[in-house]
């Protein structure tokens, strides 16, 4: 029977994990597959790991991975996918915003020959108008700037075939904009539509500051357009300065040079100073990213591992891999 691993990153999800697993297990029961679940505890500070251990003690299909600290969702996902040894893997959030009931549809598309089956939400219930607006603006910007189109209104909820999984594993960059990476690997991709429901319990870890950072991450890791923008701004400013210079020169030659022009001088200096700082900032953004990348640090460390199928054994510490 083909094997399927469901990877679930969880950060402070103790409140919802029990309910999540129940719903997931009910779905897995109906699948004509050999399915197991891998929970990745991303350094939670509540009882998430204890809940995972309890679940793993009860259900032999349930395994767990505990990271040494909070590395962020993208790293937690990577850890889970690295440890998923199956013919296909499904990535799903623990907060029940992604309905586990959609998994059979993802599997059906996979069995029809697709490598990446992503779930696209057709409604964003429970999200504010501002969040919808910013999300839409982000996707539009990405579409303009990047060569890799990132599908709209698509989270990380998706299924990956074995070869997609193997491809993704080779991308070890630190700047992990997962939606972009999933799209970048190519292969046969398709979408399945669903209605997104509001969070069941707990609250979103994504405030606007983190979302802004994610957006910058997405843009800088898939496009160098901001660098080009600096070039074009510089060029335009230089052209304007040249024309303005000619005009000042001509005026001085025709009408002499009574010392005027303090306001225009100030405006020009301040404007150019601002543009220069901005361009430096853009360059710095990319430089900082190459610096982080060049250190080649591992993306995460595993503190404890509990493979599926160890239902009655006590949890044991595993060396980092
Ligand atoms: N998550 C994680 N590490 C983090 C933040 C989030 O593993 O540092 C997990 C979280 O437990 C959940 C999923 O990533 O399963 C999505 O997180 P969240 O619901 O906060 O994001 P949103 O749905 O608002 O995009
Ligand atoms: Mg969520």
According to DSSP, the number of beta strands is 9
- The parts where pLDDT drops under 50 for at least 5 residues are 313-321
Distance between the termini: 28 Å
> Structural class of the secondary structure composition?
alpha/beta
**Coarse morphology:** elongated
How many domains make up the coordinates?
2
Oligomer: single chain
Q: In sequence order, what are the helices and strands, one letter per element?
A: EHEHEHEHEHEHHEHHHEE
Helix amount, in percent?
40-55%
**Hetero groups:** uridine-5'-diphosphate, magnesium ion
Q: What's the Cα radius of gyration?
A: 25 Å
- Give the strand order of the largest sheet, numbering strands 1, 2, ... along the chain: 7-5-6-4-1-2-3-8-9
CATH class of the largest domain: Alpha Beta
- CATH fold assignment of the largest domain: Spore Coat Polysaccharide Biosynthesis Protein SpsA, Chain A
Give the count of helical stretches.
Answer: 10
Mean pLDDT: 83
Descriptors for this entry?
2 domains, 9 strands, 321 residues, Spore Coat Polysaccharide Biosynthesis Protein SpsA, Chain A, nine-stranded mixed β-sheet, binds uridine-5'-diphosphate, disordered C terminus, alpha/beta, binds magnesium ion, elongated, single chain
Explained architecture:
- 50% of the residues lie in helices and 18% in strands.
- The protein is built from 10 helices and 9 strands.
- A 9-stranded mixed β-sheet has the order 7-5-6-4-1-2-3-8-9, with helices on both faces.
- The longest helix has 33 residues, at 262-294.
- Bound molecules: uridine-5'-diphosphate (UDP) and magnesium ion.
- The site of magnesium ion has 5 residues, from loops.
């Amino acid at each position: 029977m083909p094997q399927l691993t469901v990877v679930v990153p969880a950060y402070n999800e103790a409140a919802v994990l029990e309910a999540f697993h129940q719903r997931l297990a009910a779905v897995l029961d109906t699948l004509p597959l050999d399915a197991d679940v891998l929970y990745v505890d991303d350094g939670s500070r509540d009882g998430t790991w204890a809940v995972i251990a309890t679940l793993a003690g009860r259900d032999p299909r349930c395994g767990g991975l505990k990271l040494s600290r909070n590395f962020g969702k993208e790293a937690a996902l990577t850890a889970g996918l690295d440890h998923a040894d199956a013919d296909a893997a499904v990535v799903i959030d623990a907060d029940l915003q992604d309905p586990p009931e959609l998994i059979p549809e993802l599997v059906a598309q996979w069995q029809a020959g697709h490598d990446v089956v992503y779930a696209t939400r057709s409604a964003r219930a429970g999200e504010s108008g501002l969040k919808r607006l910013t999300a839409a603006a982000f996707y539009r910007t990405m579409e303009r700037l990047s060569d890799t189109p990132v599908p709209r209104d698509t989270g990380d909820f998706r299924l990956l075939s074995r070869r997609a999984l193997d491809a993704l594993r080779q991308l070890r960059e630190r700047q992990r904009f997962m939606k972009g990476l999933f799209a970048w690997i190519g292969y046969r991709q398709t979408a399945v539509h669903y209605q997104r429901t509001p969070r069941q319990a707990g609250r979103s870890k994504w405030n606007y500051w983190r979302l802004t950072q994610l957006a910058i991450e997405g843009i800088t890791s898939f496009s160098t357009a901001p660098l080009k923008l600096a070039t074009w701004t510089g060029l335009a400013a230089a052209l304007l300065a040249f024309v303005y210079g000619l005009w000042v020169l001509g005026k001085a030659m025709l009408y002499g040079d009574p010392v005027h022009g303090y306001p225009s001088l100030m405006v020009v200096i301040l404007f150019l100073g601002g543009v220069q700082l901005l361009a430096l900032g853009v360059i710095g953004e990319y430089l900082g990213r190459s610096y982080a990348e060049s250190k080649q640090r591992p993306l995460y460390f595993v503190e404890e591992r509990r493979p599926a199928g160890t239902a009655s054994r006590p949890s044991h510490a595993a060396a980092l891999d």
